[in-house]
Design goal:
The chain has a single domain, classed as MFS general substrate transporter like domains (Growth Hormone, Chain: A). The protein contains 18 helices and no strands. By secondary structure, the chain is mostly helical.
Length: about 450
């Protein structure tokens, strides 16, 4: 495992982020409103379906992690799962992004389950693969920094696709519509999958990690009892909830509570993700100068403050809103990649303590926690919005009570979650010195 990877290796490793990112925030931002509006599903039912599929899929994350840790093939440990998962996800993308109006809740759920099954296999294999590329404390931040940078590029590109499709669609005889934008996103994601799988399969080494041994299902229960892993999972969950709530409610918030058009509300997301291209290297630099856990604490704590300021943006004032989204996006980018780098350190510590490498299992649990971080906001917020009488089709014509409920959901849960994540990150114990001691002991140095 190299201490300093070449950029072409990091680029090849980051390539699958381009299609995999489509199952994250873009799906939360575009698909639930699209299913509830254009495709005609009930608002509360839509929230339940998009939340339920993440819970249904959780056992698959553990299953794939279990199998990955048992894999020792001539094609590698992670590569086969990356390829198979990506191909299954391609089929699921077609079912989800090209669903027809009038679809039943059962059909909507089935398409999402199929897509998430492929995503689970690919995502667990991908992040587990990343931790095996280096044993160096700071190099792991660099590896997952590239991972996060590719996520940001993908997010920006994907969010621009519907706008571009509706702008240029009429030239090819296609009328602008929400369906055109969603279909275009689906085509882009499907088209990116095969090239990205080829890049990671050819360009990234897939060596068997030290002390790799099969584990049984009892290890799943045992893993969840490990204090460092439980703490890190809780940090990741609390850090995932703020963007989950923000993504689920952003279009509604800026349209109904601040008077923007839907197009402008979605355009604001580009500022949010563009700032991630600044934030990823910035927080990587902070982590190198201090530690990964301190960078997580400072970033998510500052996010709580900046997210609060978004609620103070004047109605219909686009550039103040754009500035607010730009600033909020800078700290939001840090926890996803730094937590994954921290988990690599936890994996080393537990391998030293137990003699077993359960990287696939640990990253499977983390992928599952991330899904919960997006499942809870969509399910909870859509159900609460329905209870307070919010109507997604009315926009600014909603009642004051419904609009106030929307603003409270957009503000309070994200801020409280972010502050909780920052507090937990401050107490982390595996710094660079401790990690170097662990690696030296693992390799008998």
């Amino acid at each position: 495992m190299a201490d300093h990877l070449k950029r072409r290796t990091l680029g090849a490793f980051a390539a699958p982020c381009l299609p995999l990112t489509g199952v994250g925030l873009p799906l939360v931002v575009y698909l639930p409103p699209y299913y509830a509006g254009t495709l005609g599903l009930d608002l509360a039912v839509t929230g339940i379906i998009f939340s339920a599929v993440r819970w249904i899929d959780l056992p698959l994350d553990l299953l794939f992690g279990h199998w990955i840790d048992r894999t020792d093939s001539k094609w590698g440990r992670f590569r086969p799962w990356m390829i198979v998962g990506g191909l299954v996800m391609m089929a699921g993308l077609a079912l989800v992004f090209f669903a027809e109006p009038g679809l039943s809740p059962a059909r909507a759920l089935a398409g999402l389950v199929f897509m998430y099954a492929g995503y689970s296999a690919a995502a667990v294999a991908h992040t587990s693969w990343g931790q095996a590329l280096s044993t160096d404390y700071h190099e792991r931040s660099r590896i997952f920094g590239w991972w996060q940078g590719a996520n940001m590029v993908a997010l920006m590109g994907l969010l621009a696709v519907p706008t571009l499709a509706n702008a240029y669609g009429p030239k090819w005889g296609m009328a602008p519509s929400a369906a055109l934008g969603v279909h275009a996103m689906g085509l882009v994601l499907i088209g990116l999958m095969l090239p990205s799988l080829l890049a990671v399969s050819i360009g990234v080494p897939d060596a068997k990690p030290v002390h790799a041994t099969p584990h049984g299902w009892a290890d799943v229960k045992q893993a969840l009892k490990l204090p460092p892993l439980r703490r890190l999972l809780l940090i990741d969950l609390l850090a995932s909830l703020p963007p989950g709530f923000g993504g689920a409610l952003l279009v509604f918030f800026f349209e109904a509570a601040r008077g923007f058009s839907v197009a402008d509300a979605r355009l604001l997301l580009l500022f949010y993700f563009a700032s991630g291209l600044i934030g990823a290297p910035l927080w990587g630099w902070v982590a190198r100068r201090t530690s990964k856990h301190q960078a997580v604490a400072w970033s998510i704590g500052s996010y709580a403050v900046l997210h609060t300021l978004l609620v103070l943006v004047p109605a219909t004032s686009f550039w103040p809103a754009a500035l607010g989204m730009l600033l909020a996006g800078i700290p939001a980018v840090a926890p996803p990649f730094l937590v994954r780098a921290m988990l690599a350190d936890v994996t080393d510590a537990e391998t030293l303590a137990t003699g077993r490498s359960n990287a696939g299992l640990y990253y499977a649990v983390l992928v599952g926690v991330q899904k919960i971080g997006y499942a809870v906001p969509v399910g909870l917020s859509y159900i609460v919005l329905d209870l307070v009488g919010f109507n997604a089709k009315l926009g600014t014509a909603n009642t004051a009570f419904a609009t106030d409920g929307l603003v409270a959901l957009f503000l309070v849960p994200p801020v409280l979650s972010a502050l909780g994540a920052a507090w937990l990150a401050r107490g982390w114990t595996i710094d660079r010195a401790e990690q170097q001691r662990i690696v030296a002991a693992l390799h008998g140095k």
